[in-house]
């Protein structure tokens, strides 16, 4: 009898691929083990065994496998179940899910590039002959493809040898040039050793008698060193002595003080991890009890707690309970909210039970987390991670927390699997009969809708911890300010006034300016009106080369307007302004204050993000100008004022969620103000102070926002009332993209009629020489989602049967928002 296995290859194949194995191999193998297999003309892949059977494939002759790479399965049954759900729901191959889930070190293939890890010394005598040959080759060449190793060793079966060298740390995989997790550097200061003795200090103080401020700093430091008997942070010194950072810098420059850094490494945890959890306030305790009560009946609860209401402490209690009964917890966060602030907070409670799974981690660290989870080790009982940590091999999951559940970065756009981590989390929890807690100060409409339908339980927490007041939000009418000449650059007199006061009181300021969309929106500089699409309730974007206004959802277009539809003035303009310009203007307005900027440009570099956050935390920066990134659950204690430079930029973004997102962003940014006992202040500059969203933000009226937006979604047939699937066509030939998209749309329209929108070119219709064109399929609640997908798959198959269309790349994105 012949024996076969079906394997999952890490590539977009619709079906599992079948290989021939010997009887002994078939007895040894079980699903989830890795095997090295040949594929195509000369490729080698690491594949996962999916099933073992005796049925030869009908369409091709099965090749034999190269070899078996594991003794036991490296994935779990539940994990595979979850992958299968993702692959079917998000219409991608199981291999693509596997590729996203597994560390690269698990998936060596012929194209993988290896290089020598110089940090690890090796005793050549300890290497086996073949290992030596590889290491030797890498002395002449900085890197090798695995396919080249095949020819060096003159044998096909090289993966175990390489696996072994990778395990020993002798080799690096090319893809592994990750940044290491950011060490936190804290700035400390001490008296320069020249002045350490009593006499010398005396002399110094005399010398400084003409500089009383500097003298004061030296004296304060001296007292602090004597009484505290521990290193003194620069921030502590500025606070105690009341000196500016400028004075301290002068003293350092004069070699009176000496500055040094201590690395506070928050990943390598070395504390005890037994900090007592904080006692919950009454409001928190009530919320906790409600969550518990919901979990008795439902599998998902939504915790809607205003900013700074203390949601994290509630999570901590829920996690503790799971840890006590020996279950695993997954704590999901949007990528950039995964800060050391939070990690260290959790490590204080749970010590080295906490594992962090992060894209910035190196391959080896990921493999370690993976292995710990497979063996249900205590070391990975509480996993904190971004999106992809969902795909890890959980064995005993009890709870998933999805923090900031409204965040758009939970959705993966490219490459496949294009999954939404919140939704996939709920499915994963259900596989384990575990619970999911969604948390947010500004829940997504979908989640709040699900809660209002009774699908999820709902818990509301409306007070801030310690009864700190919600910030006082004031709207500043830009049209009025411009008219009355009360503007300096982009700053109104109110903004300048509040900033001046805040700085005088010694507090910090955050200024928020979002990056503009890719394609410019037209805005009237007199009244702030933006032309809207009559069908879609989104702003039209301006296309310069055709002098046209277009809707990117339905394709509606009109010639560029000569005058504003709102006020009739011919003051329509496309000009925008970004964070950089704001930063420049602040420097002119407050020349003696320290300004920093946080956006994609300044945080790109190594440690960029952490560095800026740290220096702001340490109060080395007075004013932080930034984009969206500022909104992510950061807890700064000394921020009293938050300024939103232009709310209209957000409101007019060409997307059906623009209003919802504007509310979320502004409420979240505002939430950074006044997190301690004094009340924070928020100024929102806008041309539309009467815009409902702004009224709702300023009165913290989430429910009004929800009701109004739901009404719009209902009227315009958008989620969560309708579901969406976006289909994108890509090809370098403009005509071919058009023909392909038209053909596809026509087939779809026969079935789904008016619920098919497009084909339409997106704002940027040519990317890396490929033209893009989109079709949007709207799915009413009553229409079966799975039948709709089946129909799309059928159309897709016929599409691929047309020779001319085959080269066109088709990307299907389910729930593309
Ligand atoms: P949220 O996540 O809801 O915005 P946080 O969990 O960050 O709020 O809490 C806000 C602040 O209040 C934090 O500084 C936190 O340390 C503090 N805090 C919250 N709950 C408690 C508690 N029970 N005891 C002491 N401090 C608390
Ligand atoms: Zn439209």
UniProtKB/TrEMBL annotation:
PROSITE patterns on file: HELICASE_ATP_BIND_1, HELICASE_CTER
Cited Gene3D superfamilies: P-loop containing nucleotide triphosphate hydrolases (3.40.50.300), PriA, 3(prime) DNA-binding domain (3.40.1440.60)
Gene Ontology annotations of biological process type: DNA recombination; DNA replication initiation; DNA replication, synthesis of primer; double-strand break repair
A molecular-function term among this protein's GO annotations: ATP hydrolysis activity
Reaction(s) catalysed (UniProt annotation): Couples ATP hydrolysis with the unwinding of duplex DNA by translocating in the 3'-5' direction; ATP + H2O = ADP + phosphate + H(+)
EC annotation from Swiss-Prot or TrEMBL: 5.6.2.4
Residues that hold Zn(2+) 2 according to the record: 533, 536, 551, 554
Cofactors that this protein relies on: Zn(2+)
Keyword Metal-binding: yes
TM helices/strands, residue ranges: none
Keyword field: ATP-binding, DNA replication, DNA-binding, Helicase, Hydrolase, Isomerase, Metal-binding, Nucleotide-binding, Primosome, Zinc
GO cellular component: primosome complex
Binding positions (Zn(2+) 1): 524, 527, 564, 567
Role this protein plays: Initiates the restart of stalled replication forks, which reloads the replicative helicase on sites other than the origin of replication. Recognizes and binds to abandoned replication forks and remodels them to uncover a helicase loading site. Promotes assembly of the primosome at these replication forks.
HAMAP family named among the record's database cross-references: PriA (MF_00983)
Stated name of the protein: Replication restart protein PriA
Organism: Winogradskyella thalassocola
